[in-house]
What we know:
With about 475 residues, this protein is of the alpha/beta class.
Amino acid sequence: MSTLSQMEDKAFTKSLPVRRLPNGNSAVRVTPHSIWDHLLISGVTCEVWLKPGVNKGNLQNHVAHAYDVPEQERTGKMALILGAGNIAAITPLDAFQKLFLEKQVCIIKMNPVNDYLTPFVQHALKPLIDVDAVRVVKGGGAEGAYLCEHKLVEEIHITGAGATHDAIVWGVGEEAEKNKEAGTPKNPRKITSELGAVCPTIVVPGPWSRADLKFQAENIATQKMHNHGYNCVACQTLILPSAWKHSDTLLKHVIKVMGECARGPYYPGAEDRMTRFRKNAGPTKKAQRSTGPAVEISALPTENAEWFTQTEVFGPAMATKTLPGNDAESFLRAAVKYANEELYGTLGANIVIHPKTIREIGKARFEEILNDLKYGTIAINAWTGVAFLVTVCPWGGYPNATLDKVGSGIGNVHNTFMLESVERTVVQAPWRPFPRGVLSGQLTLLPRPPWFISNRQQHHVGKLLTKFQYKPSFLKLPRIFAHALLG
């Protein structure tokens, strides 16, 4: 709404800080953008790193192209949104991408896993439904296949598995092989997608305190166990430095936090995926829980590594990989090379690194290393899921995918500043929570983040933030801060 209210001359771009990166490209800061950002997610920054050729002087030429066409000359399209079955916000936000950034009307097919949300989605989107911009329908694979081939559907967006994407584009079995070989998709429509990955978390050695080890263990456990691991951007490979004295201690803390995660399994096929994980892993470390099955962690085996590097488990299981490195920088470069070359997909990568270690490497050299990490979102001392939550950020895989090698998908969604020529999003969060962070010199008021699985006040903070977002007011902040501090 804010962006659209400033569409004339694309005035909204004037408030976006732009800086030059060491490689000559530009980075646009999208968070913090308002006073509320500074107060509610204090210390969290989000930048969108753009492709070569975009700079502060020509940024207006690389945003909101759909609005360049005079209103009387605009023509629309019909887009099919194949909804995800895990996170409730995914499907309506995917529709907003088509509606507001691409000027397309939508038919939303809910995923059978969460079709109980259909009446709520219909209620929330009623103004759009009433003007014939949206329809929401239910159904399984047969209904989805019917809609994908429907003559009125001109574009498709899917959030899901790579196998589902390939079945829509190429077909299955021999048909798919012939179509791929000939380069003739079964479905010729434009298809955008978000398809998950084997996402890494890279732990860089440094001067961590005991309190740092415990807090960052909560961060890492959240990256795996948020929504019980049923996230396309869940951490699946924890990359640790083999020579670091704290690696074993950190992993023990991570296992402890995972064991306290109460959410149980609900996603179809979970037990089968966990069985295959155990079969390929051999002996595993287990985080036993009072509710639900144990979380299982396996060191990446030498002889069967490919199964772990190429298979998204989509559940409460994780592999660990140790790499050598004589110092923090050489380890980080080795980890980036490993993630780029060995792990499937490009959706999100997390780096956990002490601020002092970044200073020792040097900010410019550190950003050069980040530029080498080919992922759509990179999170520094945060989880890449934060970029999903903060919807000013573009969300999607790194822009090197093709229909026949689709990886984590093609295109991006969210992106409420309507930025184009996007290469990646970089999110950074405070190293330490408030008040410990302030005592060590951090200028941030963020306590234990509300997205942490260890936060005990999520249910209260979520309701309060919803009411605040509906009608922002300074008078609502004290209650939010009070519950946040209790988390």
